[in-house]
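Section 3.1: Structural characterization of target chains.
Under the original work plan, the team committed to producing a structural model for every single-chain target entering the pipeline before any wet-lab resources were allocated. The record below documents one such target. The sequence was received from the expression subgroup and is listed exactly as submitted; it comprises 295 residues.
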Amino acid sequence: MINSNKENKWLIGIDLDGTFLKDGIQGQRNYNLSKENIKIIKKVIDMGHKVAIITGRPWDQTKIIYDKLKFRTIVANYNGAHIHIPDDKAFIPVVYSMNKNILEKIFNEEIIKKAFNGVIIETINRTFTQEEGAHLAKKIMGVGTIYNYEKWKLGQKVPVDPQNTLIGIKLDVGIHPYEILQTLNRKYGNSMFFRLWDGRNNEENPWVILEINQKASNKGTALEYIASYYNIPLNRTIAFGDGMNDREMLLKASVGVAMKNSKGTIKTYAKDTTDYTNNEAGVGRYLEEFFNIKK
């Protein structure tokens, strides 16, 4: 455990799924907050510290949690592609968009066409998917239904400059997902940021997700922006995460903390690890000790 100087104001950046939220039911939207986490976060805020949600989720899947916690701080959605304060009309949102023309070139890559298994293209106000994308939502994203989506099929023009794109990648076509990652990074890595979700595969879910954001958009840049906005130096920032989309945030924070339940290699990028999982209020218990909060 790394000790704090609790006399100074700190910024705490928290991921949601697998980190601050308890596990939910597969195929359903997860808003499963633990009472312990809620209680300790309230104490941390009462001490004068700032807590910000930094998530890959869109705002409509974050709002219920944000409201339950009674937050009024900046929130970062789409892995930092949409940074905003929901109830502050004076705050000008920061939005990072991908170039739709470059995205079309990616969709036209033969390696993508061969492994393609559905897509979800997300903007702040619009979502595009196709019938095959329903399994992406249910099996991977934990969402039973995508509401108000517009149909889009591979081969069509991309209609918007999106904030986030999720492509299902088949595992049974003779192409390793990391071969796809290397190919795309070589061709488009100067303008796009690619990552794979490779920790949720099972017999019912024989694919991985390729996630694409604009190059400058990641949770690390979001944490840095939020810290600057609240006039908190990076040496007084804590970040909690469990997946590869948290890597830049854990590296950027003074105290980057991986969850005990983290999958893959994310723990190698963290400076510390929680003693408890997301189902055991690992974030809250860590902060309780870090700030020496009395029970």
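DSSP finds ten helices and 14 strands in the chain.
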